[in-house]
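Internal tracking record. Fields below are filled automatically when a chain is submitted to the structure queue. Please do not edit lines marked as system-generated. If the sequence contains nonstandard residues, flag them in the REMARKS field before resubmitting.
Queue: standard
Priority: normal
Entity type: single polypeptide chain
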Amino acid sequence: MTPSAARIKTPQQLIAESGADLEGHGLRRTMGLFQLICFGVGAIVGTGIFVGLSDSVAEAGPAVVVSFVLAAITCVFTAFSFAELGGAIPVSGSSYSFAYASLGERAAFLVGWCLLLEYGVSVSAVAVGWSQYLNELLESLTGWQLPAALSAGPGEGGAVNLPAVVVILLAATLLVRGVRESARATAAMAVLKIGILVVFCAVGFSAFQDGHLSPFTGSGLGGVTAGASVAFFSYIGFDAITTAGEEVKNPRRNVPIAILVCIGLVTLLYCAVALSAIGALGADAVANSPAALSVVVDEVTGSSIGGGVVAFGAVVAIASVVLAVMYGQTRILMSMSRDGLVPRVFERVSPKTSTPAANTWIVAAVFAVPAAFAPLDVVVGLTTIGTLAVMAVVNLAVMVLRRRAPELPRSFRVPLFPLSPVLGIGFCLYLIWGTGWTTWLQFAVFLLAGGLLYAVYGRRNSRLVTPSDGAPGPVPPGA
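SYSTEM-GENERATED OUTPUT FOLLOWS
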């Protein structure tokens, strides 16, 4: 066998095996550009802004707007790289496939390992946030809430977080029914939550007070950096757009456009929401309120009705994140299974619905357990550093493939190359530095576990056969 470093799949192999220029390995092309943009917004806008705003403000104070911009800049440079690779290699594997085509099989497996963490913790944490806002909505509408025993895990004074399990199972049911139905639902939810956030900004700015922005950078540069590392969690999910590469119409055009539009739209929305919330209520009040948006509306309007509307928007927004991120997770697992690096059950596509049904139900069952019982705040930092590492790899992959495959058709090219991907890597490393040494240690242990898993299972079951192994190319799936 060849050394792992040489175990690379060319972009042409990845595209041919997936059928990405045809119908995509049994999948159907049903998403248009608008639906793909809504899918991206659905994957990004959720817990990070509805629930996590208070954490970012606690670190940076009024300068949280700068933190959001700094996190966005990191995403923009990386988004350029995702846009180029997503248009050139339109397959479901996203970052995993990009790493396979540039850095080799072991690196690809570790990227997939990090994506399992990113999407897994994101879905579970988002589902827990959905449960909190559901209770707030019930309180606003009926004056009644679910008992703590059924709406919180053991670490939070309850027994089981039942609503978190329910939203995961509902998302799985919709995903199994078909991509067309899921895309329509995600589009409707994305439009609704953007509308509610725009209304929130109007309410917040109507009570804006300049004094609430002073002192603007009381925590200094360290606070802004820490705030950016926390705020970065709010942007996690835009890479899920590239996981739809085999189910999007004209992916070489639509994937890059959707990525860039989503990042720009979400950044403007986040900065406007943060500025209006702090201007209306003050940084300290926002930092001390997990449901800050509802509190702002209640305080400004003097009524609980507005807060109920925001809670409804949060319920819709967070549900759409669960749906979109679960979709991305199943498609990445499908790509890894196609390559033999995870069990074959994850690549099976239902002939009736053209979706990986078994894959989806397994993912739902696995994600539901931590959502129901486990405290997830302890691994949010690990999720952030894992995502930043993946984004750094994607920036590196762009540079490697420019040199290794200059003839590859690219519908979008990274501007200011190679400066943009270099800056993308630099910003990723800067935010990784802001996560702290305990998170670095956790991540090192996590990577070590992934490396051992690859050696024990992934390498032994890989379907990749290189010419130097005595075969002309890759083994087709199912062979």
